[in-house]
Amino acid sequence: MDQSTLVAEKDIMEALELVQDPEISTVSVVDLGMIEDVEIHDSHVSITMLPTFLGCPALEIIKKNVVEQIESVAGVKAVEVSFKTSPPWTSDRITEKGQQGLKAFGIAPPPKHFTEDGSWHVDCPYCGSTYVTLDNIFGPTACRSILYCKSCKNPFEAMKPISNLM
Amino acid sequence: MSTNAVEMTPAHKEALAELLFQLADDDFLLSYRGSEWLGLAPHIEEDVASSSISQDTMGHAKMYYGLLEELGYGKIDDLAHGRSAKERKNSILVERENGAGYYMETPRYDWAYAVVRNYFYTLAKKVKIDSLKKTTYQPLAEVATKVSMELFYHHLHWRTWFTQLLSSSDEAKERMNKAIDGVMADFGDVFSYGNASQSFKEFALIEDATVLKQRWEAALKEVVKALHIESPIIQQPDRNGRLGEHTEELDRALSTLSEVYRLNPAVPW
Prior knowledge:
Chain B: It comes from Cytobacillus stercorigallinarum. By secondary structure, chain A is of the alpha/beta class.
């Protein structure tokens, strides 16, 4: 095959880095750990993704955005995007870059640890204070919680921890 | 040993579909009832929380209907919106109205009933999901594992409401106790498998209903002990939703929730 028509995985991953979460413009679907597998057969690209939450209404929008972005990669003729539940998406799949992106948006990254009774702690993404209260485990989207910083008096959000221990 | 759809006998496939319909219809109807509470919950934070839980729960129903679609039982939208009350396999508990009135007019819904129904149902769902993680049908085991992670938060939420209201004022306790009676009167078919107990066992789809029922009662006993109320015991059902026996409340729910779908069933949404 002519080298120029080969689709490189590197190009696909770079394109995926440009697909943002529709509601958090500072993180990509790659940073969120939603990309499970990329397969390239000639000019045909298949991408397997993991839903963060099963009832997330943004999944179809994300899928559409991924298709559009990948279609724009040189040499790609067909794109297929599917979701699967195994392995389950867990919040530790969010990359270091993703965690920084969440903070930049005012969302605390998910805590790495939580206790047996389900409680967990994050610091304020604005001032770094540890003096925060959990206002509501449930937030504006399925994957977020609402908290309040008693130091800088800002309400903020956190990504809910989701783990295999649950 | 896990199985896949290709090598299944017709009897095996039928048993699996029966279980999936029971799981899907339960979550679908309860999330619909939850959606009727939108804007009416006791405070804004609860409105955010319970609507988020309803959205997750609708997502779970979608996964089960999706597995049925893969098995050739029809499309997700048609399975969710297009089936009559007679064909539904949900328990009576989830089809019950939220209280008097209609949400578009003057709803006088009962929050105590919502808390007890959601808590008792979520605990039952947790017991089932824990069992389904070990089911022989691998795609269902995978869905159960994912559902379990979201259910963790639902369970925590409803248990908190339940214990707090039962540790509150006399009026709250009285209303909660009345709600417990109302919920338990409809709880008989929650752990029923209808006519499929034998086939569920034969294909090792889920553990025996008696075992799960005991787990539910034991888990609840721990919680109510500290609240000084009697442990609820599951009775035999008068009416069994798993056998397609339903109330008029289900007819009314289906007529409302499928209104847009019925305008043009060919439109995807």
